[in-house]
User: Fold this.
Amino acid sequence: MGLNAALNVPLTSERHRDDGHLLAGSRCPHCHAASFPARAVCHRCGTAAPAEVTFPATGRLITYTTVHVERPGMPVPYTLGQIAIDDDGPLVFGQVKSPDSRLAAGMAVRVAIGSPSQVPRYWFEPI
Ligand SMILES: [Zn+2]
Assistant:
């Protein structure tokens, strides 16, 4: 399969990013690299048309930071983090909401998915 197979794959902006309560992305059938959102071409080995998959709802917070710059729909301050999704899932960048602001690198988190019009569409919460 050559790179022409990637031409028939929907654009990243056209692919769904969640499956109700799970993040949807892709996993390469050749090297097993995971991506969120789904990719038309594997970022690791270049294989065209990786398979679309859903990932576990849980992961580990790798790092995080507090943002003080406003963006539409997100009052400041808010926290952004990088999460390693369980079961060899992708690294996902997203908002981390913690009711008591108690966050630590390595803590277990769970994805939450809002309505299609909600900003942000998904976020993570400590378990
Ligand atoms: Zn690959």
